[in-house]
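Raw record, unedited: Rhodanese-like domain-containing protein
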Amino acid sequence: MKFLLPLLLLTLLCTCGPAPEKATSQDTAAAPAPAYQDISPAEFAGRIGGKNTILIDVRTPAETAGGIIEGAIEIDYRSPDFEQKISELDPDKTFLVYCASGGRSGKACEKLSELGASKLYNLKGGYAAWKE
């Protein structure tokens, strides 16, 4: 009997843990919306020529020598003055951005978003998908 009470107390102490932590607003906050939308070549084509729309080709000069989408302005993503050039664009415009396969243009859209642009569309599959 004299061991029963200490054993009972020890059992209670071992089985009682700290209270579960409550979730904070940071824990439950939704992930931020993506900076841009990936869209199909058909949807991309439908947006070209829209009011207040800027079409940007971010491929290198060697890549654009093989052809560009009509009306596109060329701003090479790999150029040292890329950020300076895109910072000169009006962030209130709608941007249609493409590269060879969609990777660099996605990064370019993220940069444009950092500069305040919010209407950003990336050509899914890039120029390769456009030509198909």
